[in-house]
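quick one before i forget lol
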Amino acid sequence: MHPRVLFFLLLCTIPLSLGFGLMSGSLPLTPIEVWYALLGNNEDTASEVLWQLRLPRVLAAFVCGGLLALSGVLLQALLRNPLADPYILGISGGAAVGALAAMLLGAGLATTQLSSFMGALLAIVAVFGLGFRHGERNIYRLLLTGVVLSAGCGALISLLLTLAQGEQVKGMLFWLMGDLSHPQGLLFAWFVLLAVGLCVTVLSGGLDVLAGGLDKAAALGVAVGRWQAGLYFAAAVLTVTALQLGGSIGFVGLMIPHAIRLLGVSAHRWLIPSSTLLGGSFLVLADTLARMVWSPLQLPVGIFTALLGVPVLLWLLSRRS
């Protein structure tokens, strides 16, 4: 498929996915009700549900999906590994340890988010410090450091879950599997997505050169070390922002860039915006299903990112093969 055509189709999915998310839930709304509520012409229950519950959550799902998909594109370019995703370098593990430790101590939402951020920040510093030790930018050491740190954080997460009791366990599991019911910092998340997305799209030519091999990129005058450090920190900022917004939502950063590539897009100037749009629409769909399937009980969105994503990716792989 031509990249321009795919990008146009993905643009068309945005109002469809957002509309589906706004209309669906324990109180179904018609398109007319949604339209009048958005215009502010109603002050009834539908308008209150839309503005206070659904609209913030739908916007949070879209930006969170975009952040994870874009982070996946950058990490796959950085590591030159199609299996890389936003959680491979231990950032989510550090954030999870911080968040779960705060929950175990009975902290509130703000303190939990701060603890999660500090855990992610420590993981970023540790991976970067050990992976790029003494200025030597060894990408394999960076990857190995992240994998080892993830394993250590996994053990700490298991310990914290074992020590937790009752409702604490449920809250911890929701954080680990993704929860968009209390979005915080929505405007900041949109700013990060737009700012980083615009920057890396403008610099996408350098990503294409790096994809051709580090030696070739260096021979063409690309400052490989600076590019690697920049990509790492950009992906880290995107991942931390997504974690603060919706917890640990898996599979989006791995699957979405793959799906776009399997549809015939390889140049990063199209891969970056297309992945961002598809990631956003995909997570809106997954979160809407998480709200609907067992209504009024809400399920973790991470369950549906896997249930929806796995068969689609397998189908694309079978078509491509």
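fyi The chain has one domain: 3-320.
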